[in-house]
Amino acid sequence: RCFHFCKLPGRVMGIRLLRFTSVVIIVLLLVAGALTALLPTIKDDKLPNSRREPKTQTQSALDSFTLIMQTYNRTDLLLKLLNHYQAIPHLHKVIVVWNNIGEKTPEEMWNSLGPHPVPVVFKVQTVNRMRNRLQNFPDLETKAILMMDDDTLVSAHDLAFAFSVWQQFPEHIVGFVPRKHISTPSGVYSYGSFELQNPGFGNGDQYSMVLIGAAFFHSGYLEDFQQQPEAVYALIDETQNCDDIAMNFLVAKHTGKPSGVFVKPVDIRNLEKDTNSGYSGMWHRAEHLLQRSYCVNKLVNIYDGMPLKYSNIMISQFGFPNYANHKNKM
Amino acid sequence: RCFHFCKLPGRVMGIRLLRFTSVVIIVLLLVAGALTALLPTIKDDKLPNSRREPKTQTQSALDSFTLIMQTYNRTDLLLKLLNHYQAIPHLHKVIVVWNNIGEKTPEEMWNSLGPHPVPVVFKVQTVNRMRNRLQNFPDLETKAILMMDDDTLVSAHDLAFAFSVWQQFPEHIVGFVPRKHISTPSGVYSYGSFELQNPGFGNGDQYSMVLIGAAFFHSGYLEDFQQQPEAVYALIDETQNCDDIAMNFLVAKHTGKPSGVFVKPVDIRNLEKDTNSGYSGMWHRAEHLLQRSYCVNKLVNIYDGMPLKYSNIMISQFGFPNYANHKNKM
Predict the structure, then answer these.
(1) Does the beta-carbon distance from B269 to A319 stay under 8 Å?
(2) DSSP labels for A64-80?
(3) I need a labelling partner for A64 at 20 to 30 A (CA). Which of A132, B26, B159, B273 fits?
(4) φ/ψ of residue B227, rounded to 5
(5) Any idea what DSSP says for residue A40?
(6) Would you place residue A54 in the very low, low, confident or very high pLDDT band (cuts 50, 70, 90)?
(7) Chain A residues with CB-CB distance to B under 8 A?
(8) Where is the Glycosyl transferase domain (chains A, B) (predicted)?
(9) Which positions of chain B have pLDDT values less than 50?
């Protein structure tokens, strides 16, 4: 019954050593316990799953973007575009805003055709509203959003470049479709295309908005959009239009600078004509442009001023697609 | 002898009134004097002439630029270019750095052909050094500098636009001539032109320098240049080259970002061939490009690291010269 301690001189010494060793062990355990109590506690203010892969989460949040695509009555185009956009570099996730009220989403079919490069979430809406795409979706994990109309195809090259530009201008709407407003002597504003009047700033032309239907912008602006006056939502709902003009007002007001940065796309296509649905998009309505002028003036009332600012900066990619596109005859 | 006061009842009262009025006047004067003493004193930390027109001075400092043009052995080109540049919008003053040692400047002729839109100052140099143009000239009153080689013509449209771009990127060298460096597996750098190797960042090409011979930059960088290690001056003097590479190192180190922003010029011309002097510029020397690679590596030693960063941002002017240069077939 006595272990090797009994080999030591004297059984009494053996027992003393045993007690001593036990005490030492217990003391060590207590000290260890005390030390762990001194370790910094893990803060509990992130999502639970971020504890498992904190570094990847943070990296993804800054180095990737979420595509938000709202769709109505053009599911064939949507699916074609999803096959394209799902493979864009730096894409983190796709959020499809499903405005086909009462209709099943293609989620089943989507899953049956997996695996897919990134997760795609179908957000079923209860009312067919233009501003549904401007909700602050809890699925959003990235700082950057790429918002695309469901009939617009932009090449991966253009998107990769524009995303890198957005990273250098994160407080701006960085996108492919510039527009402008005009002030007139009467004080009434007009929403202009570029065949119309020059704002009068010298050479060339200016733009004061970048449309969000083909653009990158910061997810924080979706949060900000939830704080807009009711009149803004009423305006967008009344016209089923102008959510993009409202976003430009919001961003311009926030930054005090031109809301957008225009990146000239190399390959952008409108696939409207390719749809089988027969549905051809809101911008074909007769009143579309007049509505947008109307919206500009209403927003100036709501904002108590005109926050939009002009810019004439046009950004292209150095050496692409034409390797010598920066050359000059000197 | 007695004025209308005598009409008042009693000569005695008239005298009292006179005294009273005098006392009141004197008291008022004293009060006025005391009030002026309470006025805020004009601070004496600006040039004397700024007291006369303080607002214009500050406005000019931010809204205009100083052209610095160094010249050697091409006075015919210099004068041709001065006639062009003297009328550029937002130009405040011209500083001609006269590297023709021992030769009279054309100042007399210049004055005899006045008046001129802006002041032109001829800074006579004692030694023909490439880095003479990088002195911190006391004549500088603006935040922005436009530095031009004495054989380069850039259109007023390009300059007006590039100046507006500089105002949005004041810590960068905003100019018309991009260049790049290449890292090689051996760790030795090379100064590249764009027909050479792609730095390997995906699509297209990159630049890591914007040459100062046709660029806007902040006058503060001339101050900073005076604080460079002696080895930098020795390198520039040894090669009579690379002052522009050194400036790009300085700016990149200072900002931690790409040193330059490239604005694609519409109309830039080299007038070298037009000179009667027969002098054709340093860059025709056989060793010119090899020297620049040498400079890159020396500067990396001096700076103990490579601060240059790549960019692929190319900026053009929206709607100019082609009114529809931003259009896309959608």
Answers:
(1) no
(2) -EEEEEEESS-HHHHHH
(3) A132
(4) -100, 10
(5) P
(6) very low
(7) 157, 160-161, 164-165, 168, 176, 178, 194, 198, 202-207, 262, 264-265, 268-270, 311-321, 323-328, 330
(8) 65-320
(9) 5, 41-56
CA B62 to chain centre: 11
Q: Report yes or no: A182 and A196 within 8 Å, Cβ to Cβ.
A: yes
Q: What is the token pair recorded at A273?
A: 């004509």
Q: Which amino acid is at A216?
A: F
Contact at CB, B318 and A165, closer than 8 angstroms: no
CA-based angle B141:B142:B146, to the nearest 5?
A: 120
Give chain B positions within 8 Å (CB) of A262: 318, 326
In angstroms, how far is CA A291 from the centroid of its own chain?
Answer: 27
- Catalytic position from the list B139, B151, B244, B304: B244
Side-chain-side CA neighbours of A184 within 13 Å: the count stands at 11
pLDDT at A66: 98
- β-strand pairing of A214-218 with A144-148: antiparallel
Query: Would the pTM of this model clear 0.90, i.e. be above it?
Result: no
Tens digit of each residue's pLDDT (9 = 90 or more) over A191-232 = 977 766 665 666 789 999 999 999 999 999 999 999 999 999
Torsion sign (Cα): B126, B130, B131, B137: positive
Contact call for B268 and A318, based on CB within 8 A: no
Tokens of B51: 């007291």
- Chain A CB contacts of B315 under 8 Å are 313-316
Q: Kindly report the CA angle at A18 between A13 and A19, in degrees rounded to 5?
A: 100
- The shortest CB-CB distance from A319 to any of B205, B319, B321 is to B205
Substitution target in A149, A153, A313 with the highest count of B β-carbons within 10 Å is A313
CB B142 within 8 A of CB B61: yes
Task: Answer yes or no: do A203 and B324 touch at CB < 8 A.
Answer: no
| Residues B312, A264: C-beta atoms closer than 8 Å | no
**For residue A281, is it left (φ>0), alpha (ψ between -120 and 50) or beta?**
left
Catalytic site includes residue A244: yes
Question: Of the residues A149, A151, A158, A244, which is catalytic?
Answer: A244
Domains, chain A: 65-276+284-315 (3.90.550.10)
Give B303→chain A minimum CA distance, Å: 26
